[in-house]
Specification:
By secondary structure, this protein is an alpha/beta fold. 30% of the residues lie in helices and 17% in strands. The protein has a 9-stranded mixed β-sheet, with helices on both faces. The protein has a 4-stranded parallel β-sheet with strand order 10-13-11-12, with helices on one face. A hairpin with a 6-residue loop joins strand 8 and strand 9. The two termini are 35 Å apart. Bound molecules: threonylcarbamoyladenylate and magnesium ion. Threonylcarbamoyladenylate binds next to strand 4, strand 5 and strand 9. The site of threonylcarbamoyladenylate has 30 residues, from strand 4, strand 5 and strand 9.
Length: 301
Amino acid sequence: MKTDPVLIRRATEVLQRGGVVVVPTETVYGLAANAMDPTAVGKVFVAKGRPDTNPLIVHVLGIKQAQELCIEWPEVAQRLAQAFWPGPLTLILPKRDAVPAITTAGLSTIAIRSPRHQIFRALLEASGLALAAPSANLYTRLSPTRFEDLDQELLRRVDMALDGGDCEVGIESTVVDLCHGSPKVMRPGVITQEEIDAVAGESAGLYWQDESRSPGAAKRHYAPKYQVRLVKRASDDAVALVLGEARGPKHISMPEDEQAYASRLYAVLAELDRTGVNLVEIERPPDNWTAVLDRLNRATA
Ligand code: TXA
Ligand code: MG
């Protein structure tokens, strides 16, 4: 998808005036506002219907801009950012006082990521702003990975929306805590704890997820309207996401590679949302598909 300079200029004006813009990222679509403007950030919470206890991720062009938002930039942050930015990795660090409390939901830490999508980067560059952006879904609903999957009600509540085509990664970024010793994954994504340990040169031990440390990582999340059941093998007559080839008339064939699967997952779930189906079976992927299993478990919770 081409970056249209006219649209980037218009979106920049909207953001500089304190407006809210839907932007494509390589993971999922986001709902962006000036991270340093509490009124603008407030509009994001309202548009999403999100409780103000859930902190937002602040998006930056790169390391230099990230350093302006946190009081410490440890060696491990430098290494991880150099290895994975721009890309689907979010780092949690101690925040500076200049970052408004509403952006981080009153926490003393801030989540920072440098996105890879060229439209988002063009916007960061043109505006010079740090952009707070949660996923562009209504609270507890599916994150959109295609422009056509954006909720119409949500679109009415924002000032502008940029179409960036389909999101390549398809699930939200890996969130890594750098404030409590070795880097720990708080929300799994396509960048794994093992890859992080390899770059960090230290290991956090077992992957863990502690809800008290990741506010907003609610159990039921990423939820479609129908009931989802994780199964070993889908029945032949069920509406089902199957691994590999379809065996029934209502089976949807999913890739057997984790990244390819992740890239399609939300689009397929959103498509099914529109059919009015009541129950969808999903064949359980292998145990080592940590990020995909996390999203599937939340969809079934
Ligand atoms: O891929 C993504 O990360 C997308 C795109 C738009 O960048 N964004 C996204 O944002 O998924 P959101 O708001 O839907 O999820 C943010 C996650 C939540 O789980 C939240 O709890 C965590 O990041 N988070 C944000 N700030 C935090 C902080 N200071 N400490 C701990 N967790 C934090
Ligand atoms: Mg979200």
